């Protein structure tokens, strides 16, 4: 490619990144953390009894007890089975959810407010879902643009693939780090960006396809992707979910049942559907269908359906790395950190080229490290407050911004230290609130990584603080007449 094309690509890359840096950073950061959303659900209530398997009788008893205590009208009933992701039994309807023990007794109400806020931040930026997802998907499209323009603008990809220069004022090493992260992980970044676009723009694409090929009938397009509900004789009576679940051992002994749904509860079209994870397949699950009496009707056909249907049902696991247990999750976490650091380093490179405008630089650091602090403080608040965590998080972000404007001493090192102290505070309050449950697997699988972050952030903040203190004296010495070499 000629020089003009590379320069144009670099300009597009720079300005797209700068104008959307805050939104891209928040989506990338929340997505990186939300890779462990199942683990966070366990972490929020670590004392709940966990189990590896459950019997049909236990499921029946748990649901019967739940319906007795929650008689309100609901279109759906759900049973979440114990799996390696969440080894707990949950029964719920459209309004509430309760955990059950191994005997089918209800334990306590499910409360995962912080996890829900975190996932909502990633998927919708905490905006109304109807257009929040469209905005986030548009950011996915922008991310695709940044990846492509970044590669096009790179002058010597093959020669510089492993170059990392150190020394000087640090700008060159930051550029090299930005380029290396962007180049090495570009396939992953593109997969995340494209699947992110799919989540929000699928309905828009569906409307266009329906208008062009099906006379505006969106349901016809939906039926091509999602198998229509089975046509059954009018159903009456209590759904026999235990009988349906018992048959899974015969129908699909190699699959792991994830959850059960009773559709259209109390209506003539009521039926039972069990979703089971297929081994060595990327699709989210295959669906097994039963009538109200628990008689097997058939499968939805996602596992061996047309390639387009299989692809659509694989997007979730591909986007969140939920396909190879903790191995794929940790891989996605590391690659997600690289994507998040691309947002950070890209903005810092731009700020460096502009001479580090004081207020803009401080505001950027308040977003980067202040958002980590805000998330930690929001999680602490959730332990004592039952209101909206979305309001809490964004109020904390506004406070961070106001403090940054008002206090000139809030540099990068200070914000990094604040983030570390905030996470440390979270661990302390977590220990106080959950006591002995703080040393269960459900707790430690997140508390240990958070403790590692505390150690790293405080050490890094202390290192940066020393550099900041040394910088003025070094500058004064270099500018002193006694130190200057005569012309």
TrEMBL record:
Keywords associated with the record: Membrane, Transmembrane, Transmembrane helix
Keyword Lipid metabolism: no
Isomerase found in the keyword field: no
InterPro entries named among the record's database cross-references: PepSY-ass_TM
Transmembrane segments: 12-36, 131-153, 188-212, 330-351, 363-385, 391-407, 414-433, 439-459
Name of the protein described by the UniProt record: PepSY domain-containing protein
